[in-house]
Amino acid sequence: MEPILNYINGAFLPSTSGLTLETVNPATGQPITTLPRSSAEDVGLATKAALKAAPTWANTTMEERMVWLHRIADALEEEAETIAQLESMDTGKPISLARSVDAPRSVSNFRFFAEFGREHVEPTFADHGAVNHVHRSPIGCVGLITPWNLPLYLLTWKIAPALLMGNTIVAKPSELTPMTANHLAKILTKLNFPKGVFNLVHGLGPEVGQAIVEHPEIRGLSFTGGTATGKIVAATAAPMFKKLSLELGGKNATIVLDDAPLEEMMDGIVRASFTNSGQVCLCGSRVLVDASIYDRFKSMFVEAINNIVVGDPSLEETVMGTVISKDHQAKVESYIELGQDEGGVVLTGGSAATCPVKGVAAEGAFLRPTVIEGLSHTARTATEEIFGPVVTLHSFNSEQEALDMANATDYGLAGSVWTADAKRGYAFAQGMDTGIVWVNTWLNRDLRTPFGGVKQSGVGREGGAWSLNFFSELTNICVKQP
Ligand code: TXE
After folding, report:
1. Does residue 99 contact residue 89 with C-beta atoms inside 8 Å?
2. Among the atoms of ligand 1, which is closest to the Cα of residue 148?
3. How far is CA 441 from the centre of its chain?
4. Residue ranges per domain, the chain?
5. Which atom of ligand 1 is found nearest the CA of 249?
6. How many angstroms separate the alpha carbon of residue 147 from the centre of ligand 1?
7. How close is the Cα of 267 to the center of ligand 1, in Å?
8. Residue 349 burial (CB < 10 Å; 0-12/13-18/19+)?
9. 257 CA from centroid of ligand 1 (Å)
10. What architecture does CATH give domain 6-248+457-480?
C-alpha cells in the first residue's frame, strides 16, 4: 500500500522530519504501510492552513455548508466497500461489521448533520423594549482527536458538525488506524473541497495530539479516547480555557431483570457484550442478572457465546475478528489472569494460549470471547476498563442491589436494562448514573440525542443540537429600536 501522508492545505505531505511509523494488520501481524511521525512543527503548518482558510469558510452560508456535507456523504456512500475493506484491514474487525456499522455510519454522520442544519435557528428574546438575538458563530480552528476502535465512524461524527458550524479543522486519528482518515482526505481532494478547511496530521499521541491540545490558536477540542489520556488532555487545555468535549472510557453494566424473556433478548445481550471484540466504549462489560434466573441465563449466555464465529476478519462468516494489536491482546489477557487471581472462574474463553482461535495466524491478535463469574462487583476486573472481549457475570437479589452494583464504578457512560416490562425498565434506568441507558436494546442510535458520559467517562455531550452548540460560540446581541 502507498505510504500514508499528512493532509495539509489540500496537499499530501510527509512529516517535516521525514520520520515515519508503521501500521500493522492485526489479523496477520504484517505491516500494511507507513504513516508520518509528525511533530509540533507539522501541527503548526496544519494550523496555519486552517487559520488561513477560516475566514472564507466561516463566510459561507449554512446552506452552502449543508450542500458540501451532502456531497461528502454521497462520495463516502459510493466508496463504502473500499472504506469497509480498509477499516477491517486496519483494525482487525470483521468485514461484515465494517460493512454494517463503520462505513454506513460515516455516511450517516454527514447526511444527518447536512439535514440537521435546517433545525438550526437563532433564538430571540424580546423584553424591556429590546430584542435579544442569540447569534451563533464558528469557534474558529478546532482540534479533533480520535481513537482506534471505530476510526472513521468517530472521526466523521466530529468533522460533520464542526464543518456545518463553519469551523476549520486539524484532526489526528489514532496512529494505529490511519487508513480511512487518509481515504477521506482523498475523497475531499476529488471533490475539490476548499483547501485548508480540513487538515490531517498523523503521529503519536504525546507528540502530535499533545501539540494540537497545546496550540494557542486551536480554540476548541473534541477528544475521544481513554480516560487516562483524557486527564492529560484536560490538564493541558484547562488553563488555556479552550472549549473541550471529552468522550472517554466506560465499564458499562448490562442488567437482566427477573422477567426478561431470555430467548428473545439473548442475541442483543451477547451483541452488547462482544461487538467489535468488546472494543466499543458502549459495550456491556459487566452482566448483572437477577439471582432467580441466573443459572438459566448463564447456560444460555455461554452457549450463545460458544457459537460466535471467531476468525479471519476478511471472511464473510466471521462475527469476531481480532483486538487492535498484540500489545492490547496482552493487556486483555492480563485481565483474564487478574480475574482468576481475584477468585473468578472462566466459564468460556481465556487467553490465546489456553483457548486458541483455530485457523488463524499465530501473529494475529485473536482472543475468544471470555466470561468470568464469581467475582465481587468491586473487584478490579469488574471495575477497571478492559476494552476487550471479556465480561464478568454477577447476580443480584433486588433492583436496588442491581442499581448499587451498576453505579459502583468510576465510570458513567452507558448501560442496558432487559425486562418484559418497558415501563419498569424506564423507571429502573432513571436510577443509573450514566449518560446513556438502553432498555431492551443496545447501540440503538438516534443521532439527534445527546451522547456522552459522566464521572470518568467524560465531560460534555455530542449529537444533534449538542454538537451544534459545542462547535459554535454564542453572542447575545440586544437591539433596541431608536
Ligand atoms: O485511546 P487513547 P485509544 C475509549 C475507550 C478506550 C480508548 C481506546 O474506552 O479506553 O478510547 O482508544 C491520542 N495528548 N473510547 O487506545 O490512547 C491517541 O494518539 C493528546 C471512548 O486510542 O486515549 C489517539 O489518537 N492526544 C469513546 C487518541 O488520543 C493523545 C469511544 C485516543 O488514544 C495523547 C471509543 C496526548 N497526550 C473509545 N495520548 C467514547 N466514550 O465515546 C494519546 N493521544
Report:
1. no
2. 22
3. 19
4. 6-248+457-480, 252-447
5. 9
6. 5
7. 29
8. buried
9. 33
10. 3-Layer(aba) Sandwich (3.40)
Give the 3-state secondary structure of residue 371. strand
Give the span between the Cα atoms of 196 and 171, in whole angstroms: 12
The residue whose CA is least distant from atom 1 of ligand 1 is: 225
Per-residue model confidence as pLDDT tens for the chain (482 residues): 899 999 999 999 999 999 999 999 999 999 999 999 999 999 999 999 999 999 999 999 999 999 999 999 999 999 999 999 999 999 999 999 999 999 999 999 999 999 999 888 889 999 989 999 999 999 999 999 999 999 999 999 999 999 999 999 999 999 999 999 999 999 999 999 999 999 999 999 999 999 999 999 999 999 999 999 999 999 999 999 999 999 999 999 999 999 999 999 999 999 999 999 999 999 999 999 999 999 999 999 999 999 999 999 999 999 999 999 999 999 999 999 999 999 999 999 999 999 999 999 999 999 999 999 999 999 999 999 999 999 999 999 999 999 999 999 999 999 999 999 999 999 999 999 999 999 999 999 999 999 999 999 999 999 999 999 999 999 999 999 99
DSSP state of 341: H
Q: Specify the ligand 1 atom closest to the Cα of 210.
A: 14
Span from the CA of 426 to the centroid of ligand 1 (angstroms): 31
Instruction: Please state the pTM of the whole predicted model.
Output: 0.97
State the Cα–Cα distance between residues 325 and 353, nearest whole angstrom. 16
CA dist 313 → 18, 181, 316, 360, 366 (Å): 33, 20, 8, 10, 10
Which residue from 102, 105, 174 has its CB within 8 A of the most atoms of ligand 1, so it is best to mutate? Answer: 174
Q: Does domain 252-447 have CATH number 3.40.50.300?
A: no
User: Could you give the CA distance from residue 62 to residue 167 in angstroms, rounded to a whole number?
Assistant: 12
Return the H-helix or E-strand segment holding 57.
helix 40-58
CA distance 73 to 43: 27
Given ligand 1 and candidates 105, 204, 224, which is best to mutate, with the most ligand atoms within 8 Å of its CB? 224
Please identify, by atom number, the ligand 1 atom nearest to the C-alpha of residue 172: 25
* Contact by Cβ (8 Å): 416, 439: yes
* Nearest C-alpha neighbor of 324 from the set 97, 153, 93: 93
CA pair distance 151, 86, nearest whole angstrom: 11
